[in-house]
Every structure is written in structure tokens, then in C-alpha cells.
Amino acid sequence: MAARKLLEVTGLHAGYGRAEVLAGVSIEAAAGSVVAVVGPNGAGKSTLLNALMGVLPSRGEIRFDGEPVQRLSLEQRVQRGVALVPETRALFATMPVADNLLLGGYRQRRAPQPEQSARLDGVYALFPRLHERRAQAAGTLSGGERQMLAIGRALMGAPRLLMLDEPSLGLAPLVVREIFRIIERLRESGSTILLIEQNARAAMAVADHAYVLETGAIALSGPAPELAADPRVIETYLGKARA
Questions:
Q1: What are 21-73's pLDDT values in tens digits?
Q2: How far is CA 23 from CA 63, 219, 243, in A?
Q3: CB under 8 Å to 191, separation ≥6 — which residues?
Q4: Does position 238 have pLDDT exceeding 90, yes or no?
Q5: Is residue 194 a contact partner of residue 12, using CB atoms and an 8 Å limit?
Q6: Quick one: CATH architecture of 1-81+162-243?
């Protein structure tokens, strides 16, 4: 039986003012899968996530769990269970780690206290270093720790779709490997993840399905293992990627 489609995007156009960046992009993500979108700088990868989140206006069709969300606001999409970890990580630098995480659970604020506590414990289990630094100001963390905090804060909202924008950006190779191990663990737990990455090798290693985005359009798509074996992908992306 085919997996249920959690996200279906058809003919998406988006950009900034009169400058169109996405020209009719169509992608989908099955529930419980990791879908990677790779491509060069300027291809429109971040624009895609911002349009799906409702940060940017767009044309086309976006369906989430079978329901159209194209006309919903950013806040309404968050309430439906869509979360974005932006490339900038967007933490509250002067606030402690613990408070950053608690703010991430705002969507679940009406959940029983034991449920909220269990979610926080789950994030600390996934990121032990955050527990060690829970009283430390977020702005004093290392780059890798800030990325962990950004992901952990998003998970506090119990998202049904977690979108990650360049989670490996600016991190040392050892930290990159740790971040991707965490993505694998999230997939094993049943999370649905849309992963935007320049590190094509690392992204395809954890993804079930992958898309290559070039100049605002999907150039290639398919199961990640097949795409990783495609000579065009190897020559253009995998040969230059570092894990």
C-alpha cells in the first residue's frame, strides 16, 4: 500500500516582488519520509520553504494532509502542524536554552502539563548537550549547538511536517555527521521531514526521495538511492559535496 501523502505541491510560483524565483515547482512528501531538495546557490531552495510556510506569497496549489492550505496564514499553517527551521536558526540569543525550547511549544500550550514535560524530556534525550546547557544563553552556544536548539525548539511544537533549511550550513564535518544522524533518528520515529541541503551527499544518504532544483524548476527527481547513482547528479553535486 502506498504511503499517505502528507504534502502535495503542484505548479508553485513564488518570488520577491516582480522577480519570480520558482517557476511551477511540483513536489510531494509521503508521511513518515525524508524528502531532500538539493541544488546550487540561487536555485530557489529557501524560497520554496518560505512559500510553503506562508512567509512569501505564492501561486499554485499546496495541499497538507489532503487539505488546501494555499490561502492560510503562516500562523494557521503552524497550527496545522507545519514547522520551519530557517537557515538563520532565528533563536532568542539572550534567553536560556530551556526558555527557547518552551517557546517552541507554544502551539501545544493547551496540552496537559505531563505531555509538555514529556516532549521537553524527549528533546533533551535527542540532544543531551541542550540539557547540559539548559540554563545557558542561546547566543553563547556553538554553531552546532545552536542548530540542535533550533531543531529542538521546532520539535517542541509536535510538528507533523518539519522543514529544515540548510541544517549543515557553517558546521564542522563532525557536527554535520551528528546532525544527519539526528535526522535519521527522527525519520525512524515516524517524522516527516522536508530537507533543503547543498550537501547533496549527506542529504541523499538520509532521504527516501529527492529532488534536484535548478533555476527555479525541478530538473530531476526520484528515489534518493537512484538519484544518488545518476551520473548527472554525481558529476554536478556528489563529487563536490563533503559529509
A1: 999 999 999 999 999 999 988 899 999 999 999 999 999 999 999 999 999 99
A2: 18, 12, 30
A3: 32, 159, 162
A4: no
A5: no
A6: 3-Layer(aba) Sandwich (3.40)
Q: Phi/psi class of residue 38: alpha, beta or left (left: φ > 0; alpha: ψ in -120 to 50)? A: beta
φ/ψ of 101, rounded to 5, equals -65, -45
**Confidence at residue 241, expressed as pLDDT on a 0 to 100 scale:** 41
Q: Do residues 96 and 137 lie in contact, with contact meaning Cβ atoms separated by under 8 Å?
A: yes
The total of other beta-carbon atoms located within 10 Å of residue 19's CB is 6
Q: What is the pLDDT of residues 116-132, one digit of tens each?
A: 788 899 999 999 999 99
The domain limits of the chain are: 1-81+162-243, 91-159
Task: Report the alpha-carbon angle 5-1-182, nearest 5.
Answer: 55
